[in-house]
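Postdoc handover notes: sequence design on the structure in folder B. Input tokens:
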């Protein structure tokens, strides 16, 4: 099982403070592929996130991994309601806006995703997304494989 280090926790906590987010969460692909699991969430209201897994292409985080690029959800963006409703973490944490950034710890296809979310409707600025992308890249470097949830 992947061990979340203090350095990873600090990166997520600092990002949440920097972008004024309510939640930052980290998910990784299981060893067998197919599903991603949430390993850590800074700012979560409870630990239910640990029970949540999702498929590549499903919800905002799964879509980010499938596309290999940042995906944004906000009530202000048309068509994003479905992605919010498909994301169990967004529903469990009552998030209305989020940005999901895929990353790779192997330098290959994405095998993880960073989610930054807000419980209020908002649009993340380009600066917020750039900072989150830097943190996602850093988290990819900090991750050790193999991953076994």
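Designed sequence:
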């Amino acid at each position: 099982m992947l061990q979340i280090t203090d350095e990873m926790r600090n990166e997520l906590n600092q990002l949440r403070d920097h972008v004024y987010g309510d939640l930052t969460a980290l998910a990784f692909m299981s060893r067998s592929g197919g599903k991603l699991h949430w390993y850590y969430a800074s700012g979560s209201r409870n630990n239910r996130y640990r029970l949540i897994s999702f498929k590549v292409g499903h919800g905002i985080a799964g879509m980010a991994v499938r596309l290999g690029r940042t995906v944004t959800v906000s009530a202000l963006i048309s068509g994003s309601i479905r992605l919010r409703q498909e994301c169990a973490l967004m529903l469990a944490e009552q998030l209305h806006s989020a940005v999901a950034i895929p990353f790779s710890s192997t330098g290959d296809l994405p095998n993880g995703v960073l989610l930054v979310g807000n419980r209020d409707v908002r649009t993340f600025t380009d600066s917020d997304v750039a900072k989150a992308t830097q943190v996602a890249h850093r988290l990819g470097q900090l991750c050790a494989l193999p991953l076994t949830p």
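Context for whoever picks this up: The CA atoms of residues 84 and 90 lie 6 Å apart. Don't rerun without checking with the PI first.
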